[in-house]
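Checklist before submission:
- one chain only
- standard amino acids only
- sequence pasted in full

Submission:
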Amino acid sequence: MKSPRFASDLLNWYRQNGRTLPWRVPGVTPYAVWVSEIMLQQTRVETVIPYYEKWMQLFPNVFALACASEQEVLRAWEGLGYYSRARNLHKAAKIVVSEYKGVLPRDLDALLALPGVGRYTAGAIASIAFGIDLPILDGNVKRVYARLFDLTEPVNSREGEQILWEIAASNLPAGRAGEYNQALMDLGAMICIPRKPRCSICPLARVCKAYRNGTQELRPVKEKKREVPHYFHVAAVIVRNGKVLLAQRPSSGLLGGMWEFPKGRVDGDPVRAATKALKTEYRLRLRVKRFISQNEIGVFHHAYTHFKVTVHAVEYDLVAMPRGKNLKWIPLEDLGKYPMGRVDRLIAQRIVQRVHT
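Returned file contents:
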């Protein structure tokens, strides 16, 4: 599927209206483009910018990133979410240093072989950093194409995504892929927005089939998502002699390598049920302090991609603790040095506040 005058109209608009972003400055390195594209996966630009700027100060090149510890990398990423991106970026940096002498490969297959780099990210890096003619397909671009061609296929279905990749490839202007791909992303972020698209000022309105058919607010079509489960956890806050007990999560999986307050999933009364759950999970023997209501630090809610959690943070007395390599006593003043997920960071901040009040 091709649209007449599509690319030229889009590029003319982009030259005058494209966003000014820190990874688009003159002389930006392929490494910087790579970092930005990993951060932008499933994350809004305005959220990414301060993280990107801090990251480039800490790890200005691939050598600095490869030499950093995983804990330093996770701490720099903390709050950005989807932490497997950080771990994969760190692993990939080591590969680039050891196998490519610190030079990000231009070859598509070599890019795709790097941890955390899929078809979209490889296309973005190759087109933007190296000027290679490859298409991209992120959420913004899918929405733009779905409206331009008035697609009735769900964009999150296998068939719909295949059609979108074909559209992206067939409309790619030779020799202009990097600029064109960024223009598509900006159009989706600024004009062809999810709700109430700004069709009256869109440079592609005259060739947009959905606008012509009056279906722009019905596109893109998406398959209905499954109901998201909701789990309840208790986080044990155990403070002794100015130190608090933390557990390090396994290196793989959700929040891999991060630190947390020992947690257990519970049903029923969360505070009472936690002692059994934590004994099973960590072999910790705990006792709820006498006045339960006074020792509940707080209740915290958070949504992950596939589930939601409610976490009750409660103070406990430690009856007995086995020696475990994933458990560690951390001075309260050092909590900021240990990378944590959002809920655990909020609990840590609450504890520090209580100590100082």
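Reviewer check: The longest helix spans residues 84-100.
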